[in-house]
């Protein structure tokens, strides 16, 4: 039912610094759901294990998300909640650069910069509770939306224009390209096999070398065909929008443990995305969480999004998923 396809190519060249012919085996892996390919090149990444980030992470004179400014400058919602939503340090408000019909931001904490090993489960939990509340209210008002996504860019290598930790979320009538691929692949698998793809995948991976662990109802694996560095995927049968706090705690705890593993591996920047099941027809779908590390924020940092991922839509990693799972598993 599920195929884990790998193709291999071997490249060779003369390395004058070592005075020998060097061979590098490149793996091309195919995502078992979408067929999307990625390449694994077992070479060290050009990132510093001791990056210079002081200038970039120092609190500036003005940051719109810092406590002394946030109430006066962030936008107010006029369609769903009539203002902003709060829970402890988390504050939810509209995105002034919207990406969909409903597009929101959650300021995660009062702290302007948080080293990734110091993110706390409850900070993510508070943000997810607010997003769930907003989504619930929006869906009650507008039955046309079908696809929900939640994502985070942390620091400039991950695409964030603001250092202050924040999460973005959208509700739309139309899926993003990758969400569409998940939807179409999941629908076809369920129709042909009578069970969700992600249920079958967990059953295969649970006792294997790519399995990472479980937090609450979420099971985590190293993605077979990684779309980035140290790509970890979480899967939950629960529906984010109709979930209780215990289920959201499982997502939050898993993300925190992954970030601690990233810190141990000397990463300081990351992305995550949470793909929600189709809102009107969720049978056969799981909530899917993808987390990847990015090249380190540094004074002169290297942008890991070069032509291969940007224009070819080809994932790239320097570690095999089986190696990734071994490194991350110790935090579960």
What can you tell me about this protein's structure?
This protein is an alpha+beta fold and 332 residues long. The protein folds into 2 domains: 6-40, no CATH class; 54-329, HIT-like (HIT family, subunit A, 2-Layer Sandwich), CATH 3.30.428. The chain is built from 8 helices and 14 strands. The strands form 2 sheets. It has a 10-stranded antiparallel sheet with strand order 4-5-6-8-7-12-13-11-10-9. The chain has a 4-stranded mixed sheet with strand order 1-2-3-14, with no helix packed on it. A hairpin with a 2-residue loop joins β4 (85-87) and β5 (90-94). It is globular, with a radius of gyration of 20 Å. The two termini are 29 Å apart.
Please outline what is shown here:
The chain folds into two domains: 6-40, no CATH class; 54-329, 2-Layer Sandwich (HIT family, subunit A), CATH 3.30.428.
Write the layout of secondary structure elements.
Elements: E1 6-15, E2 20-30, E3 37-40, H1 54-57, H2 67-73, E4 85-87, E5 90-94, E6 102-107, H3 121-141, E7 147-154, E8 166-172, H4 177-193, H5 197-205, E9 211-215, E10 218-222, E11 229-236, H6 245-264, E12 269-275, E13 287-294, H7 307-311, E14 315-317, H8 321-329
Parallel strand pairs: 3-14
Antiparallel strand pairs: 1-2, 2-3, 4-5, 5-6, 6-8, 7-8, 7-12, 9-10, 10-11, 11-13, 12-13
Helix pairs in contact: 3-6
Question: What is the tally of beta strands?
Answer: 14
Tell the overall outline.
globular
Q: Please work out how many helical segments DSSP would assign.
A: 8
| Ends apart, CA distance between termini | 29 Å
List SSEs in N-to-C order.
EEEHHEEEHEEHHEEEHEEHEH
Proportion of residues in β-strands: 25-35%
Q: Report the C-alpha radius of gyration, rounded.
A: 20 Å
CATH level 4 superfamily of the largest domain: HIT-like
The major sheet is characterized as: 10 strands, antiparallel
Low-confidence residue ranges: none
């Amino acid at each position: 039912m599920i195929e884990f396809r790998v193709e291999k190519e071997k490249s060779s060249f003369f390395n004058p610094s070592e005075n020998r012919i060097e061979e590098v085996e490149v793996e091309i892996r195919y995502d078992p759901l979408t067929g999307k390919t990625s390449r694994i090149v077992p070479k060290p990444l050009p990132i510093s294990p001791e990056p210079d980030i002081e200038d970039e992470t120092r609190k500036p004179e003005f940051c719109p998300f810092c406590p002394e400014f946030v109430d006066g400058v962030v936008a107010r919602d006029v369609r769903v909640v009539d203002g902003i939503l709060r829970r402890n340090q988390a504050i939810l408000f509209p995105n002034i650069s919207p990406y969909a019909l409903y597009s929101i931001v959650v300021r995660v904490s009062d702290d302007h910069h948080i080293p990734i090993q110091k993110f706390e489960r409850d900070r993510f939990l508070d943000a997810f509770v607010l997003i769930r509340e907003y989504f619930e209210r929006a869906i009650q008002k507008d039955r046309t939306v079908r696809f929900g996504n939640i994502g985070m860019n942390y620091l400039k290598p991950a695409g964030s224009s603001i250092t202050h930790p924040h999460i973005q979320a959208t509700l739309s009538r139309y899926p993003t390209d990758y969400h569409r691929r998940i939807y179409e692949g999941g629908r076809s698998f369920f129709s042909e096999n009578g069970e969700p793809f992600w249920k079958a995948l967990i059953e295969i991976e649970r006792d294997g070398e790519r399995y990472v662990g479980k937090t609450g109802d979420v099971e985590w694996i190293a993605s077979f065909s990684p779309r980035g560095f140290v790509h970890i995927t979480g899967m939950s049968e629960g529906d984010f929008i109709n979930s209780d706090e215990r289920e959201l705690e499982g997502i939050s705890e898993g993300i925190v443990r992954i970030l601690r593993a990233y810190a141990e591996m000397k990463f300081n920047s990351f992305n995550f995305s949470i793909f929600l099941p189709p809102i009107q027809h969720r049978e056969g779908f799981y909530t899917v969480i993808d987390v990847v590390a990015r090249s380190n924020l540094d004074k002169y940092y290297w942008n890991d999004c070069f032509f291969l991922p940007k224009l070819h839509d080809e994932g790239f990693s320097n570690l095999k998923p089986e190696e990734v799972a071994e490194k991350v598993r110790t935090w579960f």
